[in-house]
Recover the amino acids of this structure.
């Protein structure tokens, strides 16, 4: 990097890399690697653009934004003398920014669809594990070793230490990753609810010694938010839950995702039938590869491979795979029916009975129940207590957010939805539900 570099970002404005800062050279070099550049070709929100046309931003823009958010968090801590400004801090600062920049390199094409395909074909490996493999086994390792932060960066992905403020920036209930993707996803979808006052929230952050047990002297360094930032934290938690309900769990987005998911699983699980079509695709090569060759092939995958395979399936005669692929391209999602009252806990016994009755009638369906997301709250005696979002209410008093604002919902509701091929099947389910 022979001159200062700037990247214009709609969320953070200018993201700068200074030629005078040696570790910025490292970050800039990491950004140019094929593993990072691949993230330009993987959408952050998968199939959400079928509902929100503006939601076409990439994981590349997100990791840049997360890195910038981490930089802002570190600047707040440095400004308030929350972190000792030692020589080791400079190295840890650089390692933190590098780790945040790299935290998504292990994502597959259309991340969640790829994960479901991998699980179905019994070749699943978490994107976190793949991230670590990519860091260790590609040119990324060479860059990190050259700048002497390889061990520090890999440690972020190998250990979980909630009392380490650097680790907390990468992975916590209010980390740089979440702060950026919530702000960014809201911006690109155009959702008006769930606004986050990011500047005030960051300015309210501190690192303090927080007591976590009954014995005197039991305390560790932890993220805390000053009392002045309580409103901003409430806004953050509310946004987190609302955006999951409005974007990530949107019923139509899920209906589109399931079309692609089932089409690809059906095709890839029958390799001989697929081979007869003459279709060639990097996804097929990856799932047929020997373990030693998989990482190289994985790094060649992006969203275009899934789209290409769906297009090829749509012009063949492969039953469900071709039918669902055609529907995907024409935006004809599966029909959704949510039998339970979404404002109450689901009637599990009745829901399971509905599932059995549908099977008896040989009605094709997919029962979908996304895992509720939320902000976890741990008791003082719990070993995970320091993972709480903690408010500094007085000079020496700290309380978990959930103990101060008990009216704030801390998790999304459980939604159990049934998806069907046709409106006729959906009506069948509705009639069965009334009779149960």
């Amino acid at each position: 990097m022979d001159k200062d570099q700037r990247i214009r970002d709609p969320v953070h404005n200018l993201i700068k890399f200074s030629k005078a800062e040696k570790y910025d050279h490292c970050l800039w070099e990491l950004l140019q690697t094929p593993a990072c550049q691949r993230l330009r070709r993987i959408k952050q929100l998968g199939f959400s653009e079928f509902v929100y046309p503006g939601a076409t931003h990439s994981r590349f823009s997100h990791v840049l934004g997360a890195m910038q958010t981490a930089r802002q968090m570190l600047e707040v801590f440095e400004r308030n003398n929350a972190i000792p400004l030692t020589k080791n801090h400079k190295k840890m600062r650089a390692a933190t920014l590098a780790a945040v920049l790299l935290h998504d390199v292990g994502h597959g094409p259309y991340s969640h669809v790829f994960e479901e395909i991998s699980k179905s074909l019994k070749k699943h490996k978490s994107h976190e594990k793949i991230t670590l493999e990519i860091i260790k086994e590609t040119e990324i390792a060479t860059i990190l070793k050259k700048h002497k932060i390889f061990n520090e960066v890999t440690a972020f992905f190998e250990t979980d230490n909630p009392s380490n403020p650097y680790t907390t920036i990468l992975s916590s209930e209010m980390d740089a990753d979440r702060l950026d993707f919530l702000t960014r996803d809201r911006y690109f979808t155009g959702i008006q609810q769930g606004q986050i006052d990011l500047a005030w929230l960051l300015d309210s952050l501190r690192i303090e010694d927080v007591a976590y047990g009954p014995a005197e002297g039991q305390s560790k360094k932890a993220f805390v938010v000053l009392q002045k930032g309580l409103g901003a934290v409430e806004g953050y938690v509310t946004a987190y839950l609302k955006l999951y309900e409005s974007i990530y769990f949107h019923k139509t987005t899920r209906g589109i995702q399931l079309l692609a998911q089932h089409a690809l699983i059906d095709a890839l699980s029958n390799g001989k039938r697929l081979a007869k079509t003459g279709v060639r695709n990097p996804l097929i090569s990856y799932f047929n590869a020997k373990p030693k060759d998989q990482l190289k092939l994985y790094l060649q995958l992006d969203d275009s491979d899934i789209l290409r395979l769906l297009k090829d399936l749509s012009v063949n005669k492969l039953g469900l795979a071709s039918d669902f692929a055609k529907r995907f391209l024409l935006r004809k999602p599966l029909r959704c029916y949510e039998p339970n009252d979404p404002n109450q806990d689901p009637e599990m016994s009745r829901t399971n009975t509905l599932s059995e009755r549908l099977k008896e009638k040989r009605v094709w369906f997919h029962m979908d129940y996304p895992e509720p997301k939320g902000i976890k709250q741990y008791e003082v005696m719990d070993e995970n207590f320091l993972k709480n979002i903690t408010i500094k209410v007085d000079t020496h008093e700290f309380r978990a957010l959930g103990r101060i604002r008990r009216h704030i919902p801390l998790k999304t509701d459980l939604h159990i939805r049934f998806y069907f091929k046709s409106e006729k099947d959906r009506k069948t389910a509705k009639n069965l539900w009334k009779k149960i």
